[in-house]
Amino acid sequence: MAINSLNIAILKIRDCCYALSCIEKKIDIDIWKYSIETKISELSKLLEGFDDTEIQSTKLTLEEFLGLSDKAKISFNDFLVRTNVFHCNKHHSIETINAIVEIMQKNGTISEQTISASYCKECNTYFILEADYLALKKCGIILCQQLTYEVYRNKGNSIMNGSALKPESLLHQCGYNVSSTENLSREQRREILRRVVDGNLYSISGLCSHLDWLIDRNSRVTTKDMSTAISKWKEDREYIASYSSKNARVVGVNSITKKL
C-alpha cells in the first residue's frame, strides 16, 4: 500500500492535530474532537495492513511520538552512564523513569527491554545502576553509547559535545570490539558500525581510516596472536567501506590527485 492509501487513512482521522513523521515527509493531523487515545487506536488499526516498513515503524512509535508513553526510549546516540550514584556533572536535578533500550542478539535480532533509570533532561543523559547494567548486558549488546561513572565524571562534558572523542573511544562506548571475551558476531559488529554512520557519529571514511590503523598497528605485534582480531577488522572495514548510508550525499568526482 502506498502514500495514497495512507492519505485516505489520514482523512478518516482529520480531527487530530499533531505532526506525524512518515515516508520522509510530515503529515499534519488535527486532533480536537475526540480523545487522543481513541485516535491512536484508530490510526493503529488503519495502518495494520500496510507493508511499508517505515509506516509500520511509525505505528509502533506513535504513542512515544505524541508524548503519551510513560516510557522514554533511549536511542543509539544517547548516553547511558553506569553508576552506583545518580548524580549529574552539572548538578542538575534528575528524575527516576522507566526507559526502553534496544538489545541486539548474536544473530542480529533486536528487541526492546524496559529498565529503571534516572534522567537529566538538561543534559539528555540517562543513568543506570551498575547491577542493572550488568544484568541488561547479559541479554545482548546494548544499543546506545555507554560510559562508566568514572569516565563520565572526568570527561563527560567534553565527550558529550564531541571534543574528546577519538574513533577508538567512540566505537568502544558504542559497544564495538573484536575481543574474544565479548565475542561479538559479524551481524552485531556490522549493526553497530551502521548506526555509528547513520547517526552521524563518525564518517565512513573516518571509520575506514581507523580500521586501517588498527590493522597496521596490530600486524606488527609479535607478543600475542592478533590474527583473529585483524581478520575481523579487515572484514568490517570491507563491509563499512561499501555501505551506503541513508544520510550520505552523492557527488561526482572528476579526478583524484595523490600527494607524495
Structural class: alpha/beta
Helix proportion of residues, in percent?
Answer: 40-55%
| Series of H and E elements | HEEHHHEEEEEHEEHHHHH
| N→C terminal distance | 55 Å
Computed CA radius of gyration, to the nearest angstrom:
22 Å
Number of DSSP helical runs? 10
Mean of the pLDDT scores? 75
Annotation, overall tally of beta strands: 9
Q: Could you describe the largest sheet, including whether it forms a barrel?
A: 7 strands, mixed
Write down the overall geometry: globular
Q: Which runs of at least 5 residues are low in confidence (pLDDT < 50)?
A: 1-35, 54-69, 247-260
Strand content: 15-25%
Total discrete domains: 3
Q: How would you describe what is shown here?
A:
- This protein has 260 residues and is an alpha/beta fold.
- It folds into 3 domains: 3-65, no CATH class; 71-160, no CATH class; 165-260.
- It is built from 10 helices and 9 strands.
- It has helices spanning 3-12, 36-47, 53-60, 62-65, 130-137, 149-160, 167-173, 186-198, 204-219, 227-241; strands at 16-22, 25-31, 71-74, 79-83, 95-104, 110-120, 125-129, 141-142, 145-148.
- Helix 8 (186-198) packs across helix 10 (227-241) and helix 9 runs antiparallel to helix 10 (227-241).
- The longest helix has 16 residues, at 204-219.
- The model is unreliable at 1-35, 54-69 and 247-260 (pLDDT under 50).
